[in-house]
Amino acid sequence: MTKFPVWIDCDPGVDDSCALVLASRLECLDIRGISAVAGNVPLEKTFRNARAVAKLAGIAAPVYPGAKRPLRTEPHTAEYFHGENGLGGCEIPDSDTPEETAPAWDALYAEAVRQKGELTLLALGPMTNVAVALAAHPDLPKYLKRMILILGGSEHGNITPAAEFNAYADPDAAAMTLKCGAEIVMLGLDVLMQAYAYPADLARVFGADNACARFLREAHQFSLKASARYGRDSLALCDSCAVMYAAFPEMFEGVCCGVAVETRGKYTLGKTVVDAVTDHKLGFENALFVTKIDREAYLRRLEALMAK
Question: pLDDT tens digit string along 172-182?
Answer without folding.
Answer: 999 999 999 99
